[in-house]
Structures are given as C-alpha cells and as structure tokens.
Fold these 2 entries.
Entry 1:
Amino acid sequence: MSNPRSAKTKKRTRIQQENELKILNSALEVFSQHGFRGSTVDQIAEMSDMSKPNLLYYFNSKEAIIRILIDQLLDKWLDPLRKINPDGEPLSEIQSYMRRKLEMSRDFPRESRLFANEILQGAPRVQDELRDLKKLVDEKAQVITSWIRAGKLAKCDPYHLIFSIWATTQHYADFDVQVKAVLGPKLSGPGRFEDAARFLDHLYINGLKP
Amino acid sequence: MSNPRSAKTKKRTRIQQENELKILNSALEVFSQHGFRGSTVDQIAEMSDMSKPNLLYYFNSKEAIIRILIDQLLDKWLDPLRKINPDGEPLSEIQSYMRRKLEMSRDFPRESRLFANEILQGAPRVQDELRDLKKLVDEKAQVITSWIRAGKLAKCDPYHLIFSIWATTQHYADFDVQVKAVLGPKLSGPGRFEDAARFLDHLYINGLKP
DNA sequence: TGTAATATTTACCAGACGGTAAAAAAATGC
DNA sequence: GCATTTTTTTACCGTCTGGTAAATATTACA
C-alpha cells in the first residue's frame, strides 16, 4: 500500500501517529500564515523535521493535508454556536456566545486564520461546509427571533447580529498583527482579550449611549 | 530607459497611462482574491489583455505592482477615520464613521480584501503603514476618551471600539462569500448593506437590551 | 514622410514547485 | 536472529513561475 492513511481501518503504528500529528500541526502553522497557494510542501516538511518525500509518504498531496485540516476545523468552529441554549436567558446567552468565540480566537488563532484565508480567497474548498453553516445559522436566527418576539431582546436582524459577533471576535485572531501594532507593546499582552471581552459585553448589552 | 515608470518626471504617454491603469486594476482583482504569493504575473497579464513581458515593461516586478497598490490603498482606507470630527456630536460621529467604513466595504471590497490578505499573512509589506495607523488611532482614541469624560458617550475602551467598527464593517467585504452563503440568494442583494447599517446603528447606540 | 522614441512579441532561462520511483535503512514480530 | 513490514533517503521529472534579451512593430513628432 502506498500510503498508511489510505489503509482503511488498519491500526496505526506509533511512528505514524506521531508523524501525522506533527505534519498536521506544521501544516496548520504554514497554511494559516501563507494561505494554500502561498505555502510549500517543503516548508511544512522542514517544520516537521522531515524530507518532502517522507512527508508525502504520510499524506498523498498538499491538497489532502488542507482538506483534513479544514474538516477538523469546521466542527470545532461551529461548536460555540451550537451551544446557544434556546431556553436560556437571551442576553446572557448572547454574551456567553460572544465570550466563547473570543476564547476560540485566543486559543486557536491559527485555525481562525486558516478559515479566514479560505473564505477570503473565495472559499473554493469549503462549499459544503458553508451549506452546513447556513443551516445552523438559520436555526439559531429563529431562536433569536423568538427571543425578540418575547420582548427579551431589542428588535434587530438576527443574521447581522451573528455576523457582528463573528467579526468582532475573529478580528483578534485574524488581524492580530494590526491589533498589536495599534495597541503597542504595553497593551498587547494577553490581557487584551479581557479588555476586548469587557468592551464587547458593554457594547452588546448597553450600546454607547451614556 | 528600461521602464517608463522609472523615468522621474517625464510625462507619460497616453498608452502608458491606459496600460498602467489597466494593469493595476487587474492586479487588484487578482491579488485581492489569491494573495500575493498565490497570484501569478501571467494571471494579471492575461486579465489585462497583455503578454507577461509586455506587462513587465510597465512595472519592473510583481513586488513593484503590489507596493503601488498598497500605497494607494492605505490613504483611502484611513480617510474615514481622519474625518471624525472632535467637535461633532459624539454618537453621530461614531455612527457616521461606521457608515463610511461600511460604504467602503461596499464600494471597494477588493481593496479591503487586499489589505486583509496582507495583515492575515503577517503584514510583511505594511510595517511602515501600521506605524502611521497607530499614530492616527492614538489621536482619535484621545478624542473618544474626551467625549467619554464629557459624559457624551458610555465609558468604554476607545481602541476596542475602533477595532469593533473595523471588524464589523470590513466583514462584509472580506467574508463576502460567507455572508452571501448564510443569507441565501434572497437576502444577498445589495440591500444587505442597508440591513447591516441599520443593525449596526442600533447596536452601537442602544445595544441589545430590550 | 522620415526618424527617433515607444510599445509589443518571440524566444528564452534559472530556480522553485508538487510529486514519483526505487533503493536503503530501521523497526517489528516471530 | 531472521524475515517481513514500515519508514526514510536519494535521485529524479515535468511543470510553472518571475524575469530577461533582443528583435520587431507601432506611434509620435519634426
């Protein structure tokens, strides 16, 4: 068999497990920074302390690697949205969702940037995933609408509400260099996520009116 | 002289002006969709109805083209922020700024995506510009702080306020495919920018509290 | 209309890229 | 310790890419 991953259910050896993990980790690093076409297999191989042919022994192609990364990503990415509880207190559900998304930007910035790269470049590889995404968002938009009807939330477009939460939270991962450049060395510590959370809490609940 | 652009102040011929414009326009299209390394000179040349050597007669290198695009971009990009008037009515100044940024996303999505690509990939070419950006943001953050002190605005972090406006507005350009996929064909018309503006107006002024 | 300057084409090149074949080396199981 | 499987290395290949040299065609202007 040419490739260990193509074996259907055969148990993986220790070396396989280690190397596949190492490769995927390097690939995430490289792809998230340079995008797919901007990355080279050699870069990923070098970061994995491996020769290019050796890497291609574990994964058939560059394309195969990013496919796996994307599949792993989307599930994790949608989890915070799934966790929104229709029976919870609306304002605090929104708030928790925002916080969960912000934590993802803090803890998984590479995943965020990989996804951003894909979308930015026209999402050629995530068409199916976008369909799933729409389904889930439609569902949650209905929940939000029901909250508004019940008078628990200000009247607003639920889709754009969700967009704004995505945008504001992912910004801290995707535009990290810009955020750091603007905040300067003093304010760029890990505390910036706390500051962001505090600001967004206030914005989403009370707005800017004094 | 090998290249018409390298001539210091010599007046440009009609053909030069036309072709340079055509090339820069194609380059913006290509770079904004594929990023720098993901784009090829041939792509840009083809889109300009030109051979690659002919294109390189007008611009010395691929790098030179993106440099010019970036220089043109930043100025335009910071304009809405510059226009914030310290003597205006705070809430409506914020609102106008948000609207101006949203209009830029609507009218110049390629510029937005080009910039996003640069930042996402570590901003290797925009270090100087980020310094200018910081200066301007520091200045406007002070204005916002003075508004808060005067009791004209809710107490909040001015930097994160600016970040949130950038994020929410640029989202509609940078993540356009995702926005369209989620909204579906019916809601994806040009009217989505009006819907977004309405939502953001309400969010930034009143928040979500019913 | 002739001529100098500008613009375009043709034919390349050297290096990087994704990927393969096959042999050598290392690990595994008996 | 030996045979089998797994892993790694070496040596490639065809294609694409950014860029160049030089010849040709076109334009502008006196």
Note: The domain at 71-206 of chain A is CATH 1.10.357.10 (Tetracycline Repressor; domain 2).
Entry 2:
Amino acid sequence: MEATGSGEKGLHARVLESLGPAITAGDHPPGTVLRTDELAERFNVSRTVIREAVRVLESMHLVASRRRVGVTVRPAEEWNVYDPRVIGWRLAGRDRSRQLRSLTVLRSAVEPVAAGLAARHATPAQCAELTEHAMGMVATSRGQQLDAYLVHDVAFHRVVLTASGNEMFARLWEVVAAVLTGRTHHHVMFTDPDPAAVTLHVQVAEAIRTGDAARAEALTREITAGAMAELDVLAP
Amino acid sequence: MEATGSGEKGLHARVLESLGPAITAGDHPPGTVLRTDELAERFNVSRTVIREAVRVLESMHLVASRRRVGVTVRPAEEWNVYDPRVIGWRLAGRDRSRQLRSLTVLRSAVEPVAAGLAARHATPAQCAELTEHAMGMVATSRGQQLDAYLVHDVAFHRVVLTASGNEMFARLWEVVAAVLTGRTHHHVMFTDPDPAAVTLHVQVAEAIRTGDAARAEALTREITAGAMAELDVLAP
DNA sequence: GGGTCTTGAATACGTCGTACTTCATGGGTT
DNA sequence: AACCCATGAAGTACGACGTATTCAAGACCC
C-alpha cells in the first residue's frame, strides 16, 4: 500500500506531476540542463520512466532534449500554454494572478462570440440545461453557498461553449472552469456572488433560448467585463 | 540504410509523425485498440520507442493506454485541439475545411480583441514592424505574388497578437499562420488578394500606431468577417 | 435451472537493468 | 584557421519480471 497520496497512476505520471510544476513555477530557470541519469536517481526510478516523462514535457515545449547536452528548460514564451496541464500547473504556481488575468482576457474575447453562436445552434436540451443551471445559480447565490454556486456557474459556461457548435470553443470549457474555481478560491469566501452577474446569466439563458444572438453576445460581454473588473479590484 | 526521407529526427518522432496523422485522419476510429508489440513490429522499432511515442499521443489525449487492454483511440471530442501538432495533422487530413472553419471562427473572436489591446500596448518598434508588413502587403498584392504576400500577412498578424501583451493571444499566432497558409494553398493561386482586405490591414496598422483601440478592433473585425465570408464562398 | 459470486489463468501494459549506438561538443593537432 | 579525435549524454534495443485488469470456468446460493 502506497501512502504517497499522489494517486495511483504510473511512475512517469508521478515524475511529470513533480517536474512540470517545478518548471512552470520557475524552479528550473530557462537554460537549466537536466540530465536523465541524474533525474532517474533523484526520483528513484529507471531511466526509461524519466525518458517517457521528458517526452511529454518536450511535447509541451517545456524542455528540449538534445544529444550530448541534456534536457534543457525552454523559455516561458515557447511553452504550450493551452495545454490543460500546463494551465493547471501555472495556476497553482507563483504568478497565478497574472495567469488568471491572461485567461480572463481570453474568456472576454471568446465567450461572447460563443454565446452568440449558441443562440443560433443550441438544442432544446441544451437550452433546458442552461436555464436549469441559471436557476441553480439564483438559488445558491445567497448565504455562503459558494461551492454549490460554482458548480452551476461552471456548468453554465460549459454548456454555452459546447452549444456554440465550435469545437475550439467547446474545448475551452476546462480553461473557464479553471478560471472560475481559481477566482472563487482566491476570493475571501465570505462574499456572496454579485447579484448583477446572476441576473445576467439568467438573461443570457433566455436570450439563447429565444435565439437572440446579438443579445446573448452583448449580455455575455457584460459578464466577462464584470469578471475583468473584479480582477482589477482584487489584483495584487 | 533508411530511405524514409521523413527527416533526421529520432525514431519516436518518426513513429509519431506516422501515427498522429493516421489517428486524426480517422484511419483508426475511436475505440480501436493498438498493441505496443504490434506497433513495434509494424515500424521495425523497439517497444521502448513505441512507448515514448504513445506517451506523447496520450498527452495529446489522442489515445489512452490501459493495462491488459492496450492503447485505445479516444473520441475526437477529447483531443487536445489546441496542440499545434494536432492542428497541423488535422489541417493536412480529411476534413481540413471543417477545421479551417473552426479556426477562422476562433480568429474572428480573438483577433479583434487582440488588436484593441495592441493599440494600447504596442511598442514603437512593433508599430514600425506593423506598418512595414502592411506596406509589404500592399506591394505584393498585385501580380501573382501570393507567396510573398502570405509572408507579410502572417507576420502582420503575428505582430498584432504579440503586441497585445497577452500570452494566450500571442501563442495563437501559429494557429493564425496555419489558417492563412491553408487558406492560400487551398485557393486557386491565380486570384490576387482582396484589395479591401489590404486596405484594412494598412488602416489597422495606423489605428494601432495612433493608439485608437476601438478603431483597431472594429477594423480587425472587418478583416476576420471577410475571412469568414471568403470561406463561405469556397467551402465544399 | 438460472443467476450471482469467487477464483484463477491469461494477457498486455509498466518498470527495470544493461549493453550498445549515435553524434554534438570541445579540445588538441597539423 | 582548418581538421580530426576523444568524450559524454541522449537514443535505441533486448530480455526479464511486475502488476493490474479482464474474462471465463466453476462453486455457490436462491
């Protein structure tokens, strides 16, 4: 029985969950060379395991492996910042607020357009799901139920992005989820959500249901603008 | 020995460049199981090499490796569609026009916002680069110089995305480049670029230089709208 | 008899250790 | 300065064993 607590995945996954965050956090500055033998000893695993982990890191453009040199850490500008794992690691790391801001800007660009498309393509089932979660947000918007509120909030945006019918938008729901949970856990947990935001969500659901694309887009733009304003208040 | 011609990278990279496109093209439908030993024999490489390639494929969520069952191809909805390599493979595959459309929609959401931000954050050097490429587009917009035009077009959008100051936007320049090159190579190569689009680029460069964010955003929105309309005309 | 549970063998991935190959790099030679 | 060679670390290969997961045969209960 392993008391590692790091889950029961393979060894390479454990190495990855250790090296990835370390690199994205800046523990190994760009240009640092990591030798596979050295890593194998440090993690008490075979070189094979290290190599597989390094391959994944390499596919994220976090490192570059070159003969006779070693595994060198690449500069942050080259990282695959859209990889969900990289996003997670950076969000857990040092400059999470900077990362949160970048992602919120991305949201503010994408979500309004996605909502507009959703108004044109959403199925009745998706519309029902949308109003359901909007009502769930209303029901949990008062009285320290932030966790329950968050669930509905995330689900709402996930449905919107999915209903847009664009796969690139749909795959961003994980990013939005990360931003929303990060936002919630970063706030002091004693303030209820902004009532105006709750109302906006209800109205977005309605606009999408009635096929009013322009209205859905404009309302979502208000939501994301609110999210950005919120960041400006709580930003370090 | 090897007359593969597939470049001088490592063996795992060669396996990847063969398996990746095959999967994204749908040659191995979701649910297909690939055994490592079988792959090792098919590619005449050791299981180690196959395992490293599979790790990368797994990190792209193209496949899932489970004990006692094998490497199973995952459904397309779970693929990491933001991975540049996945984008490239899909763009080279069967439904490239569908992919092109998805990416163009993404562009139309992101680029206008990025241009607006660029108007606020662009450095003088970036402004110079911008006007330089805009003029380059003008110079190459007539007389079958599509390749030269494309270089300036790609560079223009790369600078805009970079100048936005948002790393998530900046990293999308590869995607835009893929879309633009795909668009050009997909068209009949005998039609010069739309003069209106060229003018718009010049005006965007000017708007960013003068710090007129709203104008830069609106003009870029016109550019992306034009790109979408262009797709509707040439779509199969 | 039909259905559920237990048990055990088969199997394909996971990990390991070792030996060998391949070249970028750096230094020494001409 | 041009060239060549020794070096070192990643790349590849192979064989062995570990381990979880599946599937089916058989025991057991209803």
Note: Confidence is low (pLDDT under 50) at residues 1-6 of chain B.
